[in-house]
Structure formats: C-alpha cells, structure tokens
C-alpha cells in the first residue's frame, strides 16, 4: 500500500502541491530552485522518482532565538521537500495510528492549544504533581541514532537512509552579523518590555513613525476557549471522520466569525473547493471567486460566489476556467 502510494501519479502531484502552496514555497535550498510556474510543477511531478534519487544536503541557516543565541535551521531543496511530502503521505496514517495519545508535537490536527489543555487537565487537580521537568535535548536531531530510526520507522528505509546521510552546507551568503546586529535589527525596546521581536515594514504610520510588525506576547492574546482534541482521535480512521469534521467546522467558524455568508458558502459546497474538490480549511485558506466578474456586472450575491483555494483561484483566472455553483448538498 505504501509502495503504491509513493509510486502513484496522484501521490506525486499531491506532494508537489503541498510543498508549493505552503509558507516556505519561495525559500530555495542549496540548488536555488523554486517551482513557481505550473510548468515547473508538472516537470517536478515527473521527476519524483525513487530510482536514482539522491537528496541534496540541507542549506543551514541561523535564526535568532529570544535569548540572543542562534538556532540552526536546515532547508532542503524543493525536490527533497516534495519527496519527503510524498513519503509522509504513506507514513502518516501509520504513525498517527500508533503514536502516543498525548504527544502533540509535529502531529496532524493537533496544536499547542491541545497540549496546553492537557497540561491543565493533568496539573489542575489538588492531587496533581507539584513539579514539572522541562527537558530540551541538546542537538536532538543531530545525535539521534540513525540505525534505530532505520529499524523502527515504518517507511521506505532505502530512502530514509539517503535522507539521514544527506548532511548540510553552511550558508554564508548572508554574512554573520553577530548577536548585537540581530538584536538591533529584530528586537526593539518597548516601554516596560525588552527584547520584543519586531521588524520595520518600511512604511510610516499616520504620525510619521516607522510602522513595525511585532511578535505578540502570549499574555496579549485574548483567551479563546479551546476544546482539546480527544487523545485517541485519529484523522485517518473513518470512525473519527465526523468528529474531525466538527473540529474543522469550529475552526472555520472561528476564522470566519461574524461572516455568516461565507460559512453558508463553505457548507453549501460541502466544505470542498469547487476546482480541486479537496477540503477547504482554516489552514488551507480560501478565496471567494465571482462566477460572473464584477467588471462584467456580477454581483456580491450568494448565487454569484464560490469558495476556492487561493492557488485554485489563480488557476481559474490564469487559465480562464469557467466555474459553476454546485447544487447545495444540504437541506435548508
Ligand atoms: Zn482547490
Ligand atoms: Zn476570481
């Protein structure tokens, strides 16, 4: 089954789509390649072959941590990211089914908020533990046993071994500026709060001061109720399908709060994009497309609107696709 998935055209196309629609899509690896055109993406799908595959080293860069030290980040090439996305497609249903019910890092459909809720549940009782041990394993991913991984991870071990041996290349393209430069560049003093992570946008405010984007403090964020994900919930198990549908719905309602028309659009399309039929979620994002263009007299009425993924929307316009409103699948 995993073999079939990682060798199928559909799996490869989905993998390329994943890595060309996420936030890092414009950040290249050591080969300086990004896939920005439909043509490049199509050639990429055909290139995703196991035969003769040799991953490139990671491009290692450093980003500042809030304590003034630097954190190393490894950036793979697009083709290696796509290959990893392809094999994740086959691995994740297995790992999600076997994983600890209360682990939250790097898990599908689980978030920091779920981990916080679980901490609260475990710590709020009178009889709860009084001490918490927080461990940060030094160089965890550098030191972890490769032979253990190859023996225990249920994936294509030939490919896994190649990734483990890929290594990295230090990127000295951006000269090392030192902690002081980074502090001056990214951390700005604010009243009563030092070390605020922020960057100038280059614009000016109405008062003529530089407009800054700043990282918000957790305590600045209004408390919003979060329902913790059920420990045994598995997004790949059909028995949990309606459970996750409700959660996606809640998240979407949060993202669309106060926008009843959009929620209705989303539900009428059975939560799917009308171009690719894949689900639209708060995480994928969405655009609202006018079936009859506004410049041609199309209105903002519900009957003239459809919800699509941002990339699918670009396709409608660049390829001049005609779309139709699907018949609502739900009763009134
Ligand atoms: Zn779509
Ligand atoms: Zn449009």
UniProtKB/TrEMBL annotation:
GO MF assignments: endonuclease activity; nucleic acid binding; RNA-directed DNA polymerase activity; zinc ion binding
Domain HNH nuclease: 262-314
InterPro entries: DNA/RNA_pol_sf, GrpII_Intron_Splice-Mob/Def, HNH, HNH_nuc, RT_dom, RVT_N
SUPFAM superfamilies: DNA/RNA polymerases
Keyword Glycoprotein carried by entry: no
CDD domains assigned: HNHc, RT_G2_intron
Keywords: Nucleotidyltransferase, RNA-directed DNA polymerase, Transferase
The family this protein is said to belong to: Belongs to the bacterial reverse transcriptase family.
The protein, known as: Retron-type RNA-directed DNA polymerase
């Amino acid at each position: 089954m995993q073999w079939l998935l990682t060798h199928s055209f559909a799996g490869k196309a989905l993998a390329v789509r994943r890595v060309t629609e996420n936030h890092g899509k414009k950040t290249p690896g050591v080969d300086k390649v990004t896939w920005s055109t439909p043509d490049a993406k199509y050639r990429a799908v055909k290139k995703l072959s196991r035969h003769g595959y040799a991953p490139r080293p990671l491009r290692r860069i450093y980003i500042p941590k809030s304590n003034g030290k630097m954190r190393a980040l490894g950036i793979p090439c697009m083709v290696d990211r796509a290959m990893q996305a392809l094999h994740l497609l086959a691995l994740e249903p297995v790992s999600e089914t076997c994983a600890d019910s209360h682990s939250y890092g790097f898990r599908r459909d689980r978030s920091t908020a779920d981990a916080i809720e679980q901490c609260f549940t475990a710590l709020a009782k009178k009889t709860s533990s009084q001490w918490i041990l927080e461990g940060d394993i030094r160089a965890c991913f550098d030191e972890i046993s490769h032979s253990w991984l190859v023996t225990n991870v249920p994936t294509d071990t030939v490919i896994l071994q190649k990734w483990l041996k890929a290594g990295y290349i230090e990127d000295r393209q951006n000269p090392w500026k030192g902690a002081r430069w980074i502090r001056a560049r990214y951390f700005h003093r604010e009243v009563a709060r030092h070390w605020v992570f922020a960057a100038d946008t280059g614009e000016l405010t109405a008062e003529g001061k530089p407009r800054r984007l700043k990282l918000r403090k957790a305590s600045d964020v209004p408390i919003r109720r979060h329902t913790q994900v059920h420990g045994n919930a598995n997004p790949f198990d059909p028995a949990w399908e309606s459970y996750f549908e409700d959660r996606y719905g809640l998240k979407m309602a949060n993202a669309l709060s106060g926008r009843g028309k959009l929620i209705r659009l989303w539900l009428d399309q059975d939560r799917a994009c009308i171009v690719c039929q894949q689900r639209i979620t708060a995480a994928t994002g969405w655009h609202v497309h006018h079936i009859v263009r506004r410049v041609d007299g199309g209105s903002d009425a519900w009957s003239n609107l459809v919800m699509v993924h941002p990339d699918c929307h670009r396709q409608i316009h660049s390829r001049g696709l005609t779309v139709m409103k699907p018949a609502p699948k739900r009763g009134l």
